[in-house]
Amino acid sequence: MTALMVLLVLIVAVVAAALIYWSLINAIYREPERPDEVHTVTTPDLWKIRLYRHRPARGKGEPVFLCHGLLSNQFNWTLPEGMALVDMLTTRGYDCWVIELRGARSSTPPFGRVRTEALMDDYLANDLPAALAYIREVTGYPKVHWVGHSMGGMLLYAYDLAY
């Protein structure tokens, strides 16, 4: 019985140490919040995805939609600070909208679904049309420039063919 108690105390201590370590790492290495605005868009199949808006340095500019690659997120376009693509575009007067597609940590699936269910077909049929319509509505521009990295570029080709 004593060996079992020692093992139980050891397990509790290891779990507590791991939780403390995780909390400290998250406090020290926080993800930078760089966007001027964060918008949540609800897709037709009720997922909630985020658009991170980086406003132009001077006035109102044409909207640019930036779509990340597979297994990536907004930081593709926003880091390192001061040298990222959104920094270059906003200083030249463009209104940058960075998407995080479903499956990213910022997305919220509808009840009964999980983030790992995200498929490329869902990006094409739901996420992209909802995001682009939202950007056009908010900015008042009928067209949006698209910049894609890897999968984000391939989605442009598929979107162009589908719509």
Topology (SSEs and partners):
Elements: H1 2-28, E1 37-42, E2 48-54, E3 63-67, H2 75-78, H3 85-91, E4 95-100, H4 120-139, E5 145-148, H5 151-162
Parallel strand pairs: 3-4, 3-5
Antiparallel strand pairs: 1-2, 2-4
List keywords for this structure.
163 residues; alpha/beta; five-stranded mixed beta sheet; 5 helices
Walk me through this protein's architecture.
By secondary structure, the chain is α/β, with parallel strands linked by helices. It contains five helices and five strands. The protein has a five-stranded mixed beta sheet, sandwiched between helices.
What proportion of the residues form beta strands (DSSP E)?
Answer: 15-25%
Helical element count?
5
Number of strands: 5
Tell me the strand order in the biggest sheet. 1-2-4-3-5
Q: Estimate percent helicity.
A: 40-55%
Q: Between the first and last Cα atoms, what is the distance in angstroms?
A: 68 Å
Outline the low-pLDDT stretches. none
Q: Which structural class is indicated by helix and strand composition? A: alpha/beta
Radius of gyration: 20 Å
Encode the helix/strand succession as letters: HEEEHHEHEH
Question: How would you concisely characterize the structure shown here?
Answer:
The protein has 163 residues and is α/β, with parallel strands linked by helices. The protein contains 5 helices and 5 strands, in the order αβββααβαβα. The model has no long low-confidence stretch (mean pLDDT 93).
